[in-house]
Design goal:
heterodimer; A: alpha+beta; 5-stranded mixed sheet; 5 strands; globular; B: alpha+beta; 7-stranded mixed sheet
Chain lengths: ~160, ~800
């Protein structure tokens, strides 16, 4: 036991802010976000990498935060659902999800929003098939997915219109 | 109000009022609650499916650094159970465990890690007992008895009813069809794992925040379990991260954290692991069923005899109701002159089953709709035509005395027949491709509460103040279905304001009037009626005050668009806020309540309490499949579904409920199963869950989900608020039988059991290739000791809704005991 410190200290860049944090070294990124930083927007459905609810962006890539040790994230950029809105205004994905019924209970929503954000950053107008593939690791029990696909497509259109302005 | 023809809020597609919170991560689920000085609980669960507990030594766990409390069965002397008739559970088992996962002890520690470490330090001596694995085993082996209550041996419930002489109906039929079906159990799998936080407030009273669909029932049951006055307990239902029926029981962990918080004077939280959620279950009962149906040569039903056998698992739970639901709603879809229904629920050493979306009705619906497909084929009738020909009549009574109101089923069938191009595709697609059709009906709220009382089933309180603020209080519980949105929409419609201007307080027994909870598709109808009643009272006061100011009569006042004005002359009026000010000045503080209880059902026989509803929703569904004949793999490219919703309050949410139901129906049809296996004898022969993980319990992903074409059939039901019926459960029911019927259309084999997996399809294809019947499914229905049925003549045979053989039955029961 003596070799392992009770607490470790690292700096994360969380939603664009420099965030120093201390925590027990065994903790996952999910646990540090929720328990040590109070960012409970990121959810968990299994803590085994099976449901996708805990997806966040690490250096822009969607990762399952329940499978990542927080210690591995020193100095890295973490994006969570709390950082998605633009001040008081919603991100196009958020607006489309809210308007089109893509969030029913809303529990899988943060993970799906972050995964979809990563997709749209790489592929601004993905096909339905690409959206299905990108979201295949995120389980939703409420919607049957169709309204989620439609919301991602609508957000892509909104972002394209914004880009033209 | 409900006679108004044009609406400003109701019926318009809108962002749900809680939509913003859900997409910003601000919706606060139970596990998101963090309180100062909060401790964490973990449960020790039985590794044995059936065992006597000889001793528990928790001294080492208690001595573990960071552990504050260890609780065992000794701390909980009182049994509990959600139904008054099934008080057969202990929060922590004191002497006996009945399934793998039955909780025995709880550790409360400074964090989850410490609590988990301490669980390993609890020493339990078990004496394993023989296990009962299946319903058939339960019938064959009365010993060891899993419970002392119930009918006898390992039979929990037996029910039998006969509504008219079915044997005579069969004798008068041109054909009698007999089939045996099996519907495997499956689980809710909400993505949110159940969590609860209990805390003692400054006055010494208990608050429990929990992932529950039924805060009122939890409140009542918790008061009994803790032997505390209910007035000292406040239950707050957090928004559920999916419920589907799995958060309807009072659960062990809710009682445990409550007791621990009271004992320690500190907040205590628990969040179950995914594996624990599988063990807690309360999901779909595995049901074996036998259906005999008499038909005339032109496809009219003469009578039906349904026998069901439910595998209930280790405890009663909602099982007594589930048992009745395996037969109660078979009569509301099609004209059925005579009906006999016999049901049996057994105890087995597996996680207890309970209500899952459709509660007890998807299983017999599967059997009935597949059998109708066989009947249509045998009579050389189109399955859609056969059904259209026998659709039940609106405003009628059924053989088992249920009162049907509006029926949009014929319209639903016509819609899916048209949208799917049924006539050009059924029996006409190339080999390996097929389409199947099925229909269903469901409750819009259970007619009776789970405990007998004459009080309202939903209450709404409204408060207005001079700022123009409208606050609605209601015990209804948001589980994702949109109950908060429906509540806001209805109040906004009546008061002529925007739905987003309504402030909501819901699901909190400390603040809100009682609503029985989010189950049985009851919320829109019952809460909606109560909300209209409360809002209309206040609308009247506002109109009176505004009329006085405008010097016109109150009947001429309109409320719309946030204005209160002279109808036909919108310029002459005032803002809603000004009108509320005028009303508050004239009448004093503005508040109103509304309440609703469903009309009494005409059925008077014992058991008539399960099945009645203020209204029934109807659904028709066509599923297309592609079956790979080399592998048996089934792909579903497209589903067409039409749902008779009466009226959609918010069409965006209504569509979501229908599509979510299609998703869950496909899941149950094709992949999901909660199954168990025996370990080898040298490993105790224990009965263990085969796949207690999300990875191995297969559920559809985004890649598996087909395109769904949804149509809402809006034929407003006069018994419902704004005519709105349910949408959250009914549309699940026709999906699985439509899949089975489509598989038959595609490859000519019948898989009479769910899920329809590739191995079963292959086996059926092999049998067919060998010249045998191309069918896979249960071969026989066991001898079940059903009692003499209650004889209840149907309405058209001179009955009055009562059984006619009550005395004979009583004598039989007395002799049996």
């Amino acid at each position: 036991m003596s070799a392992v410190p009770d607490q470790v200290h690292i700096r994360l860049r969380v939603n664009g802010e420099d965030t120093p944090v201390s925590f027990a070294p065994y903790k996952t990124l999910l646990e540090v976000l929720r328990e040590d930083l109070g960012l409970t927007g990121t959810k968990h459905g299994c803590e085994l990498g099976e449901c996708g609810a805990c997806a966040v962006l690490v250096d822009g890539e969607p990762l399952l935060s329940c499978l990542v040790l927080a210690l591995e994230c020193d100095g890295r950029a973490i994006e969570t659902v709390e950082g998605l809105a633009r001040g008081p205004g919603l991100h196009p994905l958020q607006a489309a999800f809210a308007d089109l019924g893509a969030a029913q209970c809303g529990y899988c929503t943060p993970g799906i929003l972050m995964t979809a954000k990563a997709l749209l950053e790489k592929e601004p107008s993905p096909s339905r098939e690409r959206i299905k593939e990108a979201l295949a690791g995120s389980l939703c029990r409420c919607t049957g997915y169709q309204q989620i696909f439609e919301a991602v497509e609508e957000a892509a259109r909104m972002m394209a219109r914004e880009g033209q302005r | 109000m409900t006679t108004k023809q044009r609406f400003d809020v109701v019926g318009r597609p809108r962002r749900r009022v809680d939509g913003r919170a859900k997409v910003t991560g601000q919706t606060r689920f139970a596990d998101d609650i963090v309180l100062p000085r909060m401790l964490h609980a973990k449960l020790l669960r039985s590794p044995h499916p059936h065992a006597a507990i000889e001793s528990i030594d928790s001294s080492r766990a208690l001595a573990h650094p960071g552990v504050y409390l260890v609780l065992t069965g000794k701390d909980f002397p009182v049994t509990f159970g959600i139904l008054p008739v099934s008080q057969d559970e202990y929060p922590l088992a004191p002497e006996r465990v009945r399934y793998v996962g039955d909780p025995i002890a709880a550790v409360i520690a400074r964090d989850e890690q410490t609590a988990t470490e301490a669980l390993d330090l609890i020493e339990v001596k078990y004496r394993p007992l023989a296990t009962i694995a299946t319903s058939e085993e339960a019938l064959e082996r009365p010993e060891p008895r899993i419970h002392d209550h119930g009918e006898r041996g390992n039979i929990h419930r037996l029910q039998a009813f006969e509504f008219g002489d079915v044997e005579a109906a069969f004798a008068a039929a041109d054909h009698v069809f007999e089939d045996v079906f099996f519907y495997e159990g499956n689980t809710h799998l909400p993505i949110e794992q159940h969590a609860s936080v209990a805390a003692v407030d400054g006055e010494g009273k208990l608050t429990l925040w929990s992932s529950t669909q039924v805060p009122h029932y939890i409140h009542r049951a918790l008061a009994r379990a803790l032997q505390m006055p209910a007035a000292h307990i406040r239950v707050i239902a957090c928004p559920n991260g999916g419920g589907f029926g799995g958060k309807c029981d009072l659960h062990n962990h809710e009682i445990v954290v409550s007791r621990a918080a009271l004992r320690l004077g500190r907040p205590v939280k628990i969040c179950l692991t995914r594996e624990e959620v599988f063990y807690m279950h309360r999901g779909r009962h595995p049901v074996l069923m036998k259906m005999r149906t008499g038909v005339t040569k032109d496809g009219k039903l003469t009578g039906m005899h349904v026998q069901t056998l439910l595998d209930g698992g280790g405890y009663g739970g909602y099982g007594a109701a589930s048992t009745l639901y395996t037969g109660a709603l078979q009569t509301v879809t099609y004209e059925l002159p005579r009906y006999k229904f016999e049901a049996c629920r057994t105890f087995t050493n597996k996680p207890p089953c309970g209500p899952k979306r459709g509660h007890g009705t998807p299983q017999p619906r599967f059997g009935q709709e597949v059998q109708l497909d066989k009947i249509a084929e045998s009579l050389r009738m189109d399955p859609a035509e056969l059904r259209l020909n026998i659709v039940a009549k609106p405003n009628s009574l059924t053989a088992n005395w249920l009162k049907i109101g509006s029926i949009g089923l014929a319209e639903c069938i016509n819609r899916v027949v048209a949208s799917s191009d049924w006539k050009r595709r059924f029996q006409k697609l190339p080999a390996g491709r097929g389409v199947g059709l099925a229909c269903s009906a469901y409750l819009c709220g259970a007619g009776l509460p789970i405990y007998w009382n004459k009080m309202p089933q939903s209450g709404v309180q409204l408060l207005l103040d001079r700022s123009g603020q409208v606050t609605v209080f209601c015990g209804a519980t948001e589980i994702g279905q949109g109950s908060d949105d429906v509540l806001a929409a209805i109040v906004a419609e009546v008061l002529g304001i925007d739905a987003y201007d309504v402030r909501l307080v819901t699901g909190d027994t400390g603040l809100t009037p009682v609503d029985l909870g989010s189950y049985s598709s009851r919320v829109t109808v019952m809460m909606g009626h109560a909300a209209i009643q409360a809002a209309e009272k206040l609308r009247e006061l506002i109109a009176d005050a505004a009329a006085q100011q405008l010097e016109v009569s109150p009947e001429r006042i309109a409320l719309a668009g946030g204005r209160v004005y002279l109808a036909g002359d919108p310029g002459k009026g005032m803002s809603f806020r000004e009108a509320v000010e005028a009303a508050e000045a004239r009448f004093g503080t503005l508040g109103a309540v509304g309440s609703y209880a469903p009309p009494r059902s005409p059925g008077r026989y014992k058991g008539a309490g399960v099945g009645p509803s203020p209204a029934y929703s109807y659904t028709a569904c066509v599923v297309e499949v592609e079956v790979d004949q080399a592998t048996g793999w089934i792909t579903v490219p497209k589903v067409w579904i039409a749902h008779d919703i009466g009226r959609a309050i918010n069409p965006v949410l209504a569509r979501g409920q229908v599509e979510g139901s299609v998703y869950m129906g496909l899941a149950e049809a094709l992949m999901e199963e909660q199954v168990f296996r025996r370990l080898p004898p040298k490993l105790s022969g224990a009965l263990v869950h085969k796949i207690p993980s999300l990875l191995e319990y297969k559920s559809p992903t985004s890649l598996d989900m087909p395109e769904v074409v949804t149509e809402l059939v809006e034929d407003p039901d006069p018994s419902c608020p704004f005519g709105a019926k349910e949408a959250g459960q009914g549309p699940l029911l026709p999906v699985a039988p439509a899949v089975a019927n489509a598989v038959y259309d595609a490859v000519g084999v019948r898989v009479d059991e769910l899920p329809i997996t590739p191995d079963k399809v292959l086996r059926a294809l092999e049998l067919k290739a060998q010249g045998k019947p191309g069918r896979v499914g249960p071969e026989r229905f066991p001898a079940v000791p059903y009692p003499e049925p209650l004889i209840v003549p149907p309405p058209w045979e001179g009955g009055d809704g009562k059984e006619v053989n009550r005395r004979a039955r009583r004598a039989e029961q007395a002799a049996a005991s």
